[in-house]
Amino acid sequence: MSRLDSVDLDLLRALADDPRATVVALADRLGMSRNTVQARMARLERSDVLLSYERALSPAALGFPIEAFVHVTVRQADLPRIRTDLEQIPEIVQAHGMSGTIDLVVRVACRDTRHLFDVDARILAVDGVERTETSLVMREMIPYRVGPLMELARRER
Fold first, then answer.
1. Tens digit of pLDDT for each residue in 8-24?
2. Which pTM was predicted?
3. DSSP-assigned beta bridge partners for residue 106
4. What does the pLDDT look like over 73-89, one tens digit per residue?
5. 40, 109, 126, 138: which could join 85 in a potential S-S bond, CB 3.0 to 4.6 Å?
């Protein structure tokens, strides 16, 4: 997608402020027609600007209060299959391919430290995974956010 214009940024800001807002509520808030908002939303979706409509859930509320980041080193040639194998481990809630000495950073949610040990062992058991290093999350300091980026994009327009 080409650069976002001020209307796109206003719409995204309104969505960030109220992720559950309906198209009608967004149109009222922004002083735009419902059709304009709906068309803009469709374009933003097609352009992969909007990442997900999935609600962010607390793993702790589901009985998995321990979170950790697992740094994974893999055989590069096996990465596509390793990804498929890792997707089968339900405790993995997110994974990122990295540049540098670590190939993957995998975020996991577990019931307790013994469960974390078992999950790490399952990751290590994936053919092509060479080593892991696990860091326990003590506290989220800055939650995922894009509001400041939207403000920066608006200033740089």
1. 999 999 998 888 899 99
2. 0.82
3. 70, 95
4. 999 999 999 999 999 99
5. 126
